Protein 1
Amino acid sequence: MLYREAGQFKTSYDTDQSIFPIRQDRWVIALYMAVAIFAVPLMINDYWANAVLLPLLIYAMAALGLNILVGYCGQISLGTGGFMAVGAFASFKLTTAFPELNLIIVLLLSGCITAAVGVLFGLPSLRIKGFYLAVATLASQFFLVWLFNKVEWFYNYNATGQITMPPRDVFGFQITGPEAKPAITYLFALGFIMIFGLIAKNIVRGRIGRMWMAIRDMDIAAELIGVRPLMAKMSAFAVSSFYIGVAGGLYFTVWLGAAEVTEAFDINQSFLVLFMVIVGGLGSILGSFLGAAFLVLMPILLKNFMVDWLGVAAVTAKHVEITLMGVLIIFFLIVEPHGFARLWQILKEKLRLWPFPY
Amino acid sequence: MSDSLLYFIEVTIGGLLAGVMYSLVALGFVLIFKASGIFNFAQGVMALFAALTLVGLMEKLGVPAWVAIIMTVGVMILLAWLIERMVLQHLVNQDPIILFMATIGLAYVLEGIGDLMWGSDVKVLNVGLPDGAVDWLYDFNIYVTKLELVAAATAALLVAVLAIFFQKTRIGRALRAVADDHQAALSVGISLRTIWVIVWSVSGIVALVAGIMWGSSSGVQFSLSLIALKALPVLILGGFTSIPGAILGGLIIGVGEKWAEIYLGEYIGYAIENWFAYVLALAFLLIRPQGLFGEKIIERV
Amino acid sequence: MMFRKLSMVIAAAVIAAPMAAVVAPAAELTIPSLAYRTGPYAPNGIPFANGYADYWNLLNERDGGIEGSKVNVVECETAYNTKQGVECYENTKGEGAGALVYQPLSTGITYQLIPKASSDQIPVFSMGYGRTSAANGKVFDWIFNFPATYWDGATTIVQYIAEQEGGMDKLKGKKLALVYHNSAYGKEPIRTLEVMAEKYGYQLLLLPVDHPGQEQKATWLQVRKEKPDWVMMWGWGVMNQVAIKEAASIRYPMDHFIGIWWSGSENDVLPAGDAADGYLAAAVHAPGADFAVHKDIMKYLYDKGKGAGEADRVGEVLYNRGLAAAMWTSEAIRTAMKIHGTNEPTAAQVRDGFENLKVDEARLAELGLKGFTYGIEISCANHSGPGKAAIQQWDAKAKQWRIISKFYERMPEITGPLIEEDSAAYAKENNITPRSCN
Amino acid sequence: MTQIERVIGDTLLKVENISLGFGGVQALSNISFDIKEHEIRAIIGPNGAGKTSMLNVINGFYHPQEGAITFKGEVRRTMRPHEAAKQGIARTFQNVALFKGMSTLDNIMTGRNLRMSRNIFWQMLYLGPARREEMEHRHRVEEIIDFLEIQAIRRVPVGKLPYGLQKRVELARALAMEPELLLLDEPMAGMNVEEKEDMCRFILDVNEQFGTTIALIEHDMGVVMDISDRVVVLDYGRKLADGTPDEVRGNQDVIDAYLGVPHDEGEA
């Protein structure tokens, strides 16, 4: 009986439209946040930061961005890797050109630059639909990677095209470079993802979010009631790319610290983020997080389990891991095609009725 | 004939033949998409899997190539059946993107199993296909490899066979019916599931052919699965649902990217063919959103 | 149910991570091996990893470890992927008494580890790959890339070419093409080759090939058009095999086609069959399994079924490369033990071992590797050793590589300034003050 | 809601000599008629007569080859659908075109889209103007929800609703735009008698209370004759007749068109 909204009356549309209308939800979320902010930094170490939590947060950010485009606006994109590269190289150029510039500003600017690029590459979506668009977006993926690999200006004319993030600190805390403390980098990334997660939620529950979903569900009808496809699609591309750009920036500056465009932003990156969005749940903010969690944690988990517990040889473990990932993806698609987010909802519905089935 | 012209011809032929190799992969995509509306991302891995199995059988059992090929065909058919059983039948009437996702999962599984079974060493595939430049052409100072000609011939044969299969046989007609609409197919009295098994088998066999061609030229190893990326621009250029589109698209992409690499490369830098293929296809789509031979989309309310 | 799954995942991960740091018995030397036996570059990764593992195991089986300390080789699969490389590094660095040295075996991962390992004070031994300017020990205290760098490789190849042409002065007006993997790795030699082009007046033609490089039609049509006198290759993975095949079928003279040491293994030439006969590649060590140490490996490992790979592949080029890496690393550890008088050196002490490493022909002979490679001596300032390399040739009939030239000396006048420049830039970017070595 | 005294005003929309063809097929040939303010104007005709095409032309989804359309004194031949919407033309569809993934409430809120203006930066924060705007529009939407008696299904994804209700939600979405001209494409198709009665009531109420001008396509002659002020009859893309229900009922061509063989009345 614990999980009920019974007796929680909405006295205004305002409260009715709040993000978590049900009190228990608010408590749970608050609890999670408290743990994430206060507990985790105390127990975190290099392994947890660099191998688990930073990837998790940063991919969640990217998935969030892609979900806005694919899940809310219905435009499939396989250009994520390329757009992350834009964010990464933008932040590299900015921070090396203006060493004094605050890293937060650098990342936000990188996001804006990526948004502009995203809009540019999003233009075809006005004419091309579905998988045709999906494949077409690969053009941006391949072109951008080629560009950053080709034009030496992007990597400051160094010998090989590898970019390395110089140490930077924000408000006296070192964020990037090898000396940065795991707890600090983690909190930095966490701050970004929490703020932008909230912002995303606000956008999708308002007018613009409805515009996107209208285009997604039935573009013709949407246009007939006054939604301009141009505006809707381009804004979706812009916002989505902004998120992906910031994610790309964090990916390079805070997590990897050094990157080579042909390898760190290759096409697998685009697919990986798309998996996260679909497995997590299209058109769901929560889903973006769950999807990222699944695809980041699961392989590490399987690996550690097989190698350290079962003592399987690293290589066999890898092969099995690949196979199992495939099996799990298919399994979850069969169990619930609408992703983890929907499973979570169903669970809540059940909880609401528990212990009485009716 | 002036050298530059001769060279131009050489580049063009080279492009056409490279295009044929892409078409071989694209065909598999088209077959499945046409019959079931599934964008089968696993096509590339299927080619790898088929080639791996073929090599494995030849090495482990020491059987002659043609026997191994027949056995591999059997394996691919079995695979198709399993896929229908374990994946597709649970996902009927789901959004295309969900099925797309499922095929990606499938790609993982096949890759993992392939590695587990046969290991990830590079394997030399030799089913007795000729190799090296064609001599009499080479004397004209035109460079074409025998393997490419074989591939072209095979592709032509494949398309002919498929055409006959689709036009003449009862199953083939049924498949076309499904392509148009599923209800119709059911009314013809063939279960959708049988049809899916068939179409996946067929594209599995196409994947085997592609695997043999690519495998003979570069050895059989993981990278083989990445040829799928070469086929995607062909796919959107030719239209997801058109077999002639896949062939013609392949030729256009092949020639286009080779011309770009050699004549444009000098000015904007080399290694552009990868993205150029996509840009070419994209530019084309902007003019014809449904691809070369794709069905026209008529919007109604 | 979703929630339970997720929490399970997290919970398990919580347990798994500490588990990763398996507690090892004392007097054990932890040597992580960042191998890749999967993914697009597996064919190259496997033999190297086998050679690396076999040599360590041999030390354990035959000598009971190094000076009595058993070696614990922790293999971690990176699939040649930087992100997994980072995971492997973080996962293994705390292993046992702490990882002693890393062999990243990937340019990308090396660049990752340069700052990380430096701050964790763990030496990185990127043997003949990674960041060339790490040769400057003043800036890169913790990074070692002996016996030779890519830039030495480039000078070696050009020297060989000059020799065939009849002297450095004969290079003038010649046309040299570089077919390279379009990535940081492939770009490495370009500057060196450009500087030399300036100096010796040959013409340089750059032909990038994108990953993975299965389809190089355009590249080789270029070669047909430009008709370069020599073709050099910085390739990796399937790219090598396809390039050699293509070169063969356009009937480019194989003995004018020279790869770097990562483009000269059995995997690369076998698919091309007889056509590959005569293909050349740079080498820092001899191929083949007829050294004393290989006999021991057979005796102590493969005959007992403890070999890492298949017996018939022992002695392949990349296998021997892994073996060489392990050999030099073990010698560095030995040196560290001598210097600090302990049989459980720390990573920092192993670094000292590297900086005072001296393996001359005599020592090689003792190790059962007489004539396997040349003697090296590492110092605080010079982390890249003597930088010598030879040229080896493929004999398709006998299916084996043969070294056909002397070991060419490096050309400091060419590479020195470049190394200074690049390492200085790195030092400036990451505000490192170069230490003084004396 | 303010009660508007319902008096037929002067011409709101005028279509003149509209011709529309797809390839060989001539969907509309030389059609002219007008719609006056506050009236309920029915467009009838057998299937394939070009009724829906007519609506599509009016709200800019199809672009006629010839002819002119005058709306609120403005003459034009073609415009983009969203421009038509901006000018105050709303529309429902023959086979429901709702946003299946969204809840009833969101569907109707989408109808307010044109009247909402707060930019994305306010929305990111979801406070200040954006929030206030959201609230006041929510109020209007709730009024419409009450008006159409669909309070119960506010939060239900419309995909899950029965057909009749979907039609009602679609009407709600159109009303949310507060249009001057409301185009209804077979609002009662596939409904049972009670649902039809409800829908008729709603249409009349809309027309009276909001003073909205309505043009509707309907097959059910009874309904048409009851509620519409004037009727225009199309057949094979031509105009057969135009006038009050009684005039039309008496028109010989119309009788032929309906009783004449190829098509028969009532089929939806």
Protein 2
Amino acid sequence: MKTRREFHKLAVATAAGLVAPAVLGSRAFAQDKPIRVGASVSLTGPLASTKNGLIGYELWRDDVNAAGGLLGRKVELVIYDDQSSAANVPAIYSKLVDVDACDVLFSPYGANLSAPVMPFIKQRNLFMIGMFGLAGNDVAKHDKFFHSGPWGPNSGRDWARGFFDLAKAQGVKKIAIINADLEFSKNAAKGGAEVAKEYGMEIVFNQSYPPNTTDFSAIIRNINAGDPEAIFIASYPADSTAIIRGVKEIGISDKVKLFGGAMIGPQYGALLSSLGPELNGLVNSHTFVPEPTMQTPAIKGFFDRYTPIAVKQGVDPLGYYIPPFYYVAGQLAAAAIIGSKSVDPAKMAAFLHANTVDTIAGKIAFNEIGDWKDRRVLMVQLRGIKGNDLEQFRNPGHQVILDPPSLKTGELAAPYNKARTS
Amino acid sequence: MRKNSILFLAGIVIILALGFLLPWTIRNPFYFFVGYVVLQYVTIATGWNILGGYAGYINFGAAGFFGAGVYLAAFLYTTLGLPLPLCILSAAVLGAILGVLMGYLTLRIQGVYFAIATLGLVIVLETIVHNISALGGASGMAVYGPRPPGWSPGPSQYNFTVMLMIAVASVALARFVEISWIGRGLRAVRASEDAAECSGVPTLRLKLLACALSGAVLAAAGSPYPFYTSYVEPVTAFSLIIGLNAIAMPLIGGTKSWAGPVLGALLLASVQQIATVTISSELNILFVGLVLIAFVAFAPGGLADLFSRKQGRAKP
Amino acid sequence: MLSIDILLNAVVTGILLGSVYASLALGLGITFGILHIPNIAHPTLVIAGAFFVYTFGQWGFDPIFAALIGLAPFYILGVALYIFYSRVFERRGGANVLQSLTLFFGLSLVIEILLALSFGSELKSVSVSYIGSSLKLGLLTIPYRLLIPALLGPVMIAAVWLYLSRTNSGTAIRAVAHEERALSIAGLNPASVKQHAFGIATATAVVAGAALIMIGPVEPFAGRFQIGRVFAIVVLAGMGSIPGSLAIAIIIGVAEALVASYLNPSWAPGVAFAILLLGLAFRPQGLFGAAR
Amino acid sequence: MNDIVLSMKAVEKAFGAFRALGPVDLDLRPGERLGIIGPNGSGKTTLINCITGVYRPDKGSVHFEGRDISHIEAHKRARLGISRSFQIPRPFAGMTVLENLLVPLDYCHVDGSKEERARAVLTSVGLAGRISHPSESLSQLELRKLELARALVGNPKVLIADEAMAGLSGEEIDEVLSILFALNRSGVAVIMIEHIMHAVMRFSERIVCFETGRLIASGTSAEIAENPLVQKVYFGE
């Protein structure tokens, strides 16, 4: 029984290690009482490409503090790395709430990582801004949860509806759907299939494929065999590349009018520059593009500051997809705190439910479960891309907004084969 | 031997009593979230060691058994509404069946093939889960756990106590295996399979038994997980980090006795939990990898061995 | 949907992919198949090779040329790995499987993280003129992206096989695992023969890495998805049978392509392991190896 | 029919195209001391493996006390009373000397206290002073003794000593021989496989010689020493 004593020592050391941060935290808290905003960010793991959102948080914090803080209190970010694993999320949020005493919470990235916190915030009645989780609150229906992302109501089904609206306008009758076997893609494909049925389209092909598939020739041949007029693709960056290459290699029918939809990857600088002109003609979802209908001094100012930091950190230098909405999350929290003059979750939530907030991404109003009242997911067509220079994407005309109609900056170029080569 | 057993039993009683009392004395739920994870790894390391440590059969697929437990419990609870203890029990039975199946397919040949086959178990099971819509596939499955009973102040505390009971049961099982004829036979298998067989040890049956027990404990370790995260999806349920920790923890603690994996898990899981809320980066996994290499290379007996050697030297 | 061109193309794609799998497995065929060292870090070394090729690609080198440059440094890396491995275990009089598996497991983690730290965890790919176009032969459409790596595989395999079977130092490698004593009687140092073999095995990783990154983008953790395949190939080929491994790799490639075409691509990852498990259960000595 | 304890009838074993053994017929009387000689690769070890159950013979059968055991597993044969020591000692590393003996005692049914039995056997082979030492710390001779002690602790009826004296000095060989003689006096049949010719000649009542998998000669020590076939095998033309 030699080890028993060692056990004891270890247990003590471990407990001390866990307690120490809490003690430090509460002392800092007592001195100047900043408002604490807590979040987990996927700094590592498969979702590490979303970590550029953190720059959005930090720019917001700096702006707020430069303007004197909120209600006269400084804002302090408490950020942990969830390593892209849902298993780490419960402990992290308990730490944020129970040890770090955060006043405001931002959710982890996406629905998979956010799902574990939903019962927790509902049960503890906490205020949270959701980060990019599709339909994140549709089950819990927590009244103090607000999306920073533009998915809109019924997002599980409807967020990519724009693609199907465009297809319907083109008279598409037969559609093919493929998706990666991952949460976001799978839900996109499931919702897409429902919308297609609603519009009376025939789904001639509907398959999912495993992550890390590198060869799509078989799938593309099978799609061609089904003879669709539109192809809805919900993919992740690696497969987005492989699919676009595969289409170039295998070829696709001239009947196909729309190609794309929910591909992750063509929003990011890395893929835009590596594929370059191969992306021409693609119709894909986005959250922000520098087109005249969206560009405002506020958001331009954001990117002017974002880009140098991103370059220094080695993350996506464009950052159109995620970072602005991380800044928006901060703005929403700030509006709620200032508007309700408190950090009381119920008051903050009441304010956001009752008021429209002006952010760098435009005016936002929420429904009862915190979705944006109006969906504002963009369907953009990539056009006129020459070479692999990333800077061209900062100019209008390369990511033409087709949907929603209120932001439209151009008409669909179809069929895909023609748009691809022109 | 008897005196040790009484001490062990007393330890169990004290730890279980603490498991029921602490939730009422420590108000901060955070420690129960962290404690749950640490205890989950104590169970995983203990379960892995029954086969890996005692019999010397390395299982890279701990995450497969764990994930199977996670999904079975989630499925039984959400669709059939089975009570938690039955979910845990069913998961253990499934783990045992999987263990026997794996063992039956590969144990008649050298251990290295068993190890390779277990690598595949994770991928095969993950592929299956992806393709079963009743399990939610890649979109995962929301699980709203049972309301905690009166003896526990909240869900995180309840999960903690449940996990503690599983961990204690697993350690007790591992200790029983270790000090009984099963353990002696397994150690003989580990040292020399032929010699063991020729000494009358039914090596195949013993290994299958170890596979079953190990699988059962690993799957049981996963069964409360759906209630801890309220949500299961294949990537985390079959996460590599589980397979990694399952090997690293016993190896660091020492594989010869039940105390090794417990020690290794308490240490490594605590360090990881602290790292998650302090330094946090890829360095975390890098650290585990380096520690693993260092222990294999320089201290194959693990911490337990280092301690006993040091104490042995101190004695003149 | 069951048209002849889909079937034909699926089979051809499968053969091409299988050929690439064979080059991934070649190094393991030497370390595990011949030397009996369970180097589960091999797929990760392949990924490291892919990143090497990627780095040179950034400077304008063709992937195949970059792979040739990489042979020497990877050979040295392999020798260093073997020296570390033998230092660790020979002090204890031979390695036990558990410990060497764990050592290589830890090693692969370390390599992965080092790659992630130095290249980031995003996908990296090479751009060459022939990527994106394809060869059309009647009903067949074969992307060069697949064709060229698939031709690279058999060339390398043939070279290694000829080396092992026709040269003295190659024969020494094949002998070292069984006849260590005989080898030292013949005046050869078994340790240096093993170092050499490990070096060659690791050098094949850079060529396999080039093949992999030509087919599609690669990220630091991509090696994990290959572990099953490469072990399935080496084990089912009958440990150390190099022509056998090419045949098994093609069988696995075709099986995966057919499953993807006719069943559902989402079942494809399980194919290699299902074949491996069945193989281990019913013919543990491998399909191309003699009974032991 | 109790004058034959172990009998092999037309046993054959091949590995691929290589026929390692047989066909071989061989009987063993209870309490007999049988020596098996033959050059390396002559099939001696394959023969033992067929008797102990490590291999299943391709053809032919093995009978023990009148019962066909060709298809039962090695550990069951051990429990029936066929015991062996290994050419290269295989102690259960990580266990003490005493524990090494407790393994067979756990699985073979022996009356009385296991620990007392183990201590008695260890004393009889001269390892009494090493009972609680780890088995890795033993000397070569002690390992040989441990190997024998582990083989005989379960009260076997047949003990197969596979080169139990290889690498030992003259005095050490005598020590091992005396252990085997003592064991044989208690009624255990002993099969000795050995290259050390003077030892096997001294020990065996009957010697058989193997060459390329076949039994080529059988007889007393003196007969074998005179046998031209055996001489040819050992001394060439």
